[in-house]
Amino acid sequence: MNIHPDLLRAFVTVVECGGLSRAAGRLGRGQSAISLQMKRLEDQLGVKLLERTPRHLSLTSEGELLLDHARRLLRLNDDLIARFTERELSGVVRLGAPEDFATSLLASVLAKFARAHPRVALEVTCELTRDVFERFRAGGLDIALVKREPSEAIGGIRVWREPLVWAAANRQIAETEGPLPLIVSPRPCVYRKRATDSLDAIGRPWRIAYTCGSLAGAHAAVRAGLGVTVLPKEMVPIDLIVLNDEALGLPDLKDTEMALIEAPDLSPAAVRLRDTIVRELEH
Known about the structure:
alpha/beta
C-alpha cells in the first residue's frame, strides 16, 4: 500500500490551519475536495484521524501519530523535488514579528533560511503585535507572526505555543505589601491581559507601574526593580528570576500562541520562508 503525498499534505494542512475551509484556501482547492481527501486517507489507513464538530476540529490518537510521520515524509519529498527542479530563489520577502520572538527563537530560523537562499532579501520588521498586525492588514507585509489567545479567531497557522511565567529582578518585589507593580506593554497586549485577568481572578490587587513598547526598555525596568512582568518561559533573560513559588501568591498563567498569517498570492520565496518557519518552529 502506498499513500499519495497529496493526501498527507491535505491532512497536515487541515491540522495546521485548524479546519477544512482554511486548508482549502491555502491549497487552492475546494472544501469538498479536501474533505474527500481526508476520507480517502482515513479509508486507506482504516482509522479515524480527525474528530469534527461544527466549531472544532481535533486529532485522534491515530491522527497525532500520523502527523509527525506525515510532516517528515513531506519534508523529504519537498527537499528532494527542490534539489532537482527548483531554480534558485530570489526576491524580497517582508516579514513582521514581535520583538521578543524575532530576537530569540526566530533568529536562528531566519539565519538558516538565509544560508540556504542567499539571493532572497529578508526585510524583517520588529514591532508590537498590534503594530505588526496593522502593518500586515495595510499590505506592508507578506508574512506576519502575531501573538494571540488560543481562542482568538484571527486565522493563520499556529507555529508556537508559549508557556508564560512571572519574572522579576528578585522575589521581594512580589512580596511587597499593596498592589502588585506590573511592567507591561501598551494595550492591546496578550501578556498584559493575561497578567491582569489572572490577578483579578484570584482577587489580588495590582497596578501598572511601567508601560513600555520596547522589549529592551521593559527588561531594563524589570532589572531596576520597578515591578514584575510576564514573559514566555523560554525567553526569560538569565539575570532575571522566574517567580513560580506558590507562597508568593501569583496565579498560574495560561499559555498563549504565536500564529503565522500570510498575504494572498505569496511569491515562491515567501512560500518557502513560510514553510521553513512552520517546519522549524513546530511546537
